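Hi L.,

You mentioned the student needs an example of a multi-chain input paired with its predicted structure. This one should do, with 344 residues in total across all chains.
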Amino acid sequence: MNRKAVGITITQHILKQQRENPQATGAFTTLLTELIVAAKVISREVNKAGLVDILGSTGEINIQDEQVQKLDVFANRVIIERMQHIGQLCCMGSEEVADLIEIPSQYPKGNYILLFDPLDGSSNIDVNVSIGTIFSIYKRKNEGNQSEVLLDEVLQPGIEQVAAGYFIYGSSTIMVYTTGNGTGVHGFTLYPSVGEFLLSHENIRIPEKGKIYSVNEGNYQYWDERTRALVDYFKEKDKSSGRPYTSRYVGSLVADFHRNLLKGGIFMYPADNKDPKKPHGKLRLMLEANPLAMVVKEAGGYASDGQGPILEIDPKELHQRIPLFIGSKQDVEFAEAFLSGKAP
Ligand code: AHG
Ligand code: MN
Ligand code: MN
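Structure written out for the whole complex:
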């Protein structure tokens, strides 16, 4: 019986991309390879959750003013501890940590900046719904500089990202990432028996137009008139424009995004007046919107804050929140035109 050869591993894929990039030094390969190890450790814990005391909240409130889940803390710690010693980073930024995370002086520094949401979809941890990790990689502007990294070196627009992607811990663990510049978006599935991520979704392209809209309608009363009208639009009956769309909302951004990336559709987290401290909605520009905006753009889609491209926003703070409309190009461009009054 001819055994099916193991497919292309993520490591082979990264090395192939490294060979095709004349400036590559292997630093990026080291960075991504170590991040993948961290994700495998988190995936194992997520899939064991419920068997060990890893569920529930720690009773603390984090910088985001949200209940901290034990798995948030665990995932955050795993990534920081794994990534700080590899000698490729000059600093890190985490959704769970208020300030920039410095590289301890005993470790060599590198030129990359790693920003991440260690565990996305925390409210779904205890109910066995898909959650994930989102990551965004920038290069330090003045490379080779061994001095401490200043925040304004980190606050670069999303268009400057050198790589971005996410891990989704669901019925299987999948990694999706891109290095931009036409290299495409590729998905890898973790085969626990092999312990490797194998290529499973080569060159993902998001459908131009979808049939799915994804938004938390429980916030309807907190939206402005234009936003309400936009969401109502997707529910109206009009065969010629394929409406009404189907509603799908998981409550984990990575899960809602990944479904729309593969099937087409629009995910929306609009600004709302629910919490005066969060007038620009809930999602974070640097740690959630920018990485997914890079992925969706490379896959042929688009991401907007309702007025313009997410990737061109000049960030002001590490934990800055931003309204997010992301997915199929036609749907998101329509939403942006509708919200900024350029469409009916
Ligand atoms: P996180 O768990 O990292 O805080 O992210 C949760 C986010 C995102 O995953 C999801 O789209 C959104 O929260 C859901 O928010 P609502 O429960 O307000 O709909
Ligand atoms: Mn998140
Ligand atoms: Mn999170």
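You could point out the following to them. Residues 27-48 form the longest helix (22 residues). The two ends are 62 Å apart (CA to CA).

Best wishes,
N.
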